[in-house]
Design a protein that fits this description.
It contains 22 helices and 10 strands. The protein is α/β, with parallel strands linked by helices. A 6-stranded mixed β-sheet has the order 4-3-6-7-8-9. Strands 1-2 form a two-stranded antiparallel ribbon.
């Protein structure tokens, strides 16, 4: 909890002022991206920040409206029942996002964020980035085309024209924003979006330059509309699936940002506290006229670079946002929409890169393919389908990787007590002992393949070295054995006994050994146990001789 400003309040005050400058145009733009009135983005940048500051754990998470969630919100609100406004629906959506996160925090489900792997998350972000930019092109060009996927957007744009003067405003705004990024003074570059919006509002208000160009229009009172969201059960049920997806994406993306910055700053992050903070922020957004919020990468980096020391920086961001709402209520009505769209396009494409895709293709083609499929699903299908593909694909790849346990045949590195894979090192093997290393936990996903893997190594050992009398398995990498794994070990022991071979273990970890001893498993199946693999090998009396499978080239474990 935050009780009083810390001694570092000056650094937090400066960081809050810098980030508020960026948050003002982004709040307006992302509300428009979600198909909502601009003031909804401002409302989401006030009290929700205070709620997160009270319950969260990251001092640099730039909370507020974000582009990816705005696209998801737009899709969720696109199918509301007749008679339900987007402003009412988004309050319900924010309340449900907060409730889902609060329930997950209560059940300690923060670990579920791992269901969405990094390739799936990056593929989703790539697709969302491109779709956000494509979705703003009609606004930039003064077209009335709409659509949440590329096919529908292109089909709509094909039938509708564009407005030359709007395109001129949008193109000029993009050119100025891109030019500002080359300024040698970073502080001035960060102010560029806000300065551009102010200049555009002045030109539109006091000159005929923007005549015929779509503008934000008159805003209602910017006083916070405190109150409970609508209680229409049909709306709540309709939006619940979308709320679950928004909650998952918001938490996963926020956690990824805050964890990366916490590692860079040498700080400890509490995922459970992050989930509680996000839950509180979205619940508060639902009763203060806002939209679902999450952590923004660009604003978080800016908070870090600006010197934020504690979560009081978010309190100062909210204070500066409140001041801006009072001062800018009138001028915002004259803001040309193409200029606002330009800030979105430049902001989302500024950090776009395909380097991660290229690295994934080279390192793990299957994960690179998942990244590409998720990106394509966002562009061509829907946000919900892309997230589902990402989760299912991540789990499928995990199962595929663990469906067959990795079991290595090992031998002793000459002159040492170290044992390494015979396929990677020049090692020595005893003919009477088949040394194996199980490289992962034995659980239901891979247990069925254990006996087959061991028997394959047994046949290889007989062919290259000689007939063994016992099989010694190094269990140091095994962190857990579930009931399926235990059953697989029993089947392995029976298969080896049928061939007149003993099963022995070495270097079993304490927690695993405790469970085996709790049921007397080692005694029941007459399995010998050795403190070290070297001790187990030395239990035999035969002299060492080189394995015929030894290789001279060094390798890696």
């Amino acid at each position: 909890m935050l009780l009083k400003p810390p001694a570092t309040w000056r650094a937090d005050l400066l960081a809050g002022a810098v980030v508020a400058v960026l948050l003002i145009p982004q709040s307006l733009a992302y509300a428009m991206l979600a198909g909502l009135p601009p003031q909804v983005g401002l409302y989401a940048s006030l009290l929700p920040l205070l709620a997160y500051a009270a319950l969260g754990s990251s001092p640099v998470l730039g909370l507020g409206p974000v582009a990816v969630l705005a696209l998801m919100i737009a899709q969720a609100l696109g199918g509301l029942p007749p008679g339900v406004s987007a402003e009412a629906g988004v309050l319900v959506l924010a309340a449900e996002v907060g409730a889902v996160l609060a329930l997950a925090a209560l059940l300690r489900l923060d670990a579920l964020a791992s269901l969405l792997s990094v390739p799936a998350l990056r593929g989703f972000e790539n697709g969302a980035t491109l779709m956000i930019a494509a979705g703003q092109l009609p606004v930039l060009l003064g077209s009335t085309a709409t659509g949440f996927t590329l096919p529908t957007l292109v089909a709509s744009a094909w039938d509708r024209g564009w407005h030359g003067q709007s395109a001129l405003w949008g193109g000029a705004a993009i050119a100025l924003l891109l030019a500002s990024r080359r300024l040698r003074r970073p502080q001035l570059a960060r102010l560029a979006p806000l300065l551009l919006l102010v200049a555009a509002m002045m030109l539109s208000a006091f000159t005929p330059a923007a005549q015929g160009v779509a503008q934000v229009g008159a805003l209602p009172s910017l006083a916070l509309p405190l109150g409970l969201p609508p209680r229409d059960a049909a709306v709540w049920l309709h939006l619940l699936p979308s709320a679950a997806l928004v909650a998952l994406m918001g938490f996963v993306s926020s956690l990824a940002v805050s964890e990366s910055l916490a590692q860079r700053r040498g700080e400890k992050l509490l995922p459970a506290a992050e989930m509680r903070g996000l839950a509180a922020a979205n619940l508060v957004a639902s009763i203060s006229g806002g939209m679902p919020v999450a952590g923004s990468f660009s604003r978080s980096i800016l908070l870090h670079q600006a010197g934020s020391r504690t979560r009081w920086s978010l309190v100062f961001v909210a204070l500066f946002m409140g001041l801006a709402m009072v001062l800018l209520a009138g001028p915002l009505a004259h803001l040309p929409k193409p200029v606002l769209a330009a800030t979105i396009v430049v902001a989302v494409l500024g950090g776009f890169t395909l380097r991660h895709d290229a690295d994934a293709w080279r390192y793990a083609p299957a994960e690179g393919l998942l990244m590409a499929v998720v990106t394509a699903a966002v562009l061509l299908w829907s946000i919900a389908a892309a997230l589902a593909i990402g989760v299912v694909g991540s789990v499928a790849l995990l199962i595929q990787r663990t469906a067959r346990p990795h079991v290595a045949r090992i031998g002793r590195v000459p002159g040492t007590q170290h044992f390494r894979n015979v396929e990677r090192y020049a090692v020595e093997c005893r003919p009477e002992v088949l040394g194996l290393r199980v490289d992962e936990s034995l659980v239901f996903t891979n247990a069925r393949g254990l006996t087959e893997a061991v028997l394959a190594h047994l046949a290889e050992h007989r062919r290259l070295v000689g007939p063994p009398q016992r099989v010694l398995m190094m269990m140091a990498p095994v962190n857990h054995i579930d009931v399926s794994g235990l059953t697989a070990l029993q089947e392995l022991q029976a298969a080896l006994a049928a061939e007149g071979l003993r099963l022995e273990f070495s270097e079993v970890k304490g927690p695993v050994l405790d469970r085996l001893r709790a049921i007397g498993w080692l005694e029941r199946y007459d399995v010998s146990l050795y403190l070290s693999h070297h001790e187990g090998i030395q239990a035999g009396e035969h002299a060492l001789r080189p394995s015929l499978a030894d290789q001279d080239a060094p390798g890696q474990l």
